[in-house]
Automatic annotation (TrEMBL):
Name under which the protein is recorded: V-SNARE coiled-coil homology domain-containing protein
Segments traversing the membrane: 184-202
Keyword list, A-Z: Coiled coil, Membrane, Transmembrane, Transmembrane helix
UniProt-listed SUPFAM superfamilies: SNARE fusion complex
Matches recorded under Gene3D superfamilies: 1.20.5.110
Stretches of the chain forming a coiled coil according to its record: none
Amino acid sequence: MAILYLQLCDKKNRSILTNIYSRLGKKAIENDSVYNELRKIITAMPEDKQLFKYDSSNNQYVFFLQLSTLYVYASIVDDVTAPKDITAFYNMLTKDLEENGRETGFEKRVAELMNTFNSERSNDEIQKEVLKARDVCAKSLNTLVNRGEELDKLNVLADELSTKVSKFQSESRRMFMENRLRQYFVYVLIVVIIFIIYYIIFK
């Protein structure tokens, strides 16, 4: 998030009172058409709302405009700056104007305010990214630990299944043999009876 450029205009006639770049803005904005587009929006801006947001025609920048009692604040920001952040900046700007006025060192104060605001927001964003990365790492570790536990459970289940399969195989062999014995028992009995009868008769 970065405020690149601020234009302070008179609310009545929309004339430019001052132009201020942040350190980032001097490097980032190279095209004069962006400023011309901002001027057109300022002159056509209605007075029925407090904060306006417009995307630049090249979709590279965002224009935020806000009306105060005496001024129009118009800024060019990057495309990730949130309205609440720019509103907070405009509130700081309004407070500075009320306390110190526009005559003595206004441009320098506002440039410092913009640069401070940009660096504080950048630090906040870095901290948020670090926290997000930490959360992602923690979730990944939890997932890995859970997977490890699941793998251990799967190994135990596989061992139990292997034991049960072995028992089932031995039990099925035993039952197969018992079944065969029952089938052939009758034949063996008949053969034994015939043998006994034959032995008794021909003895």
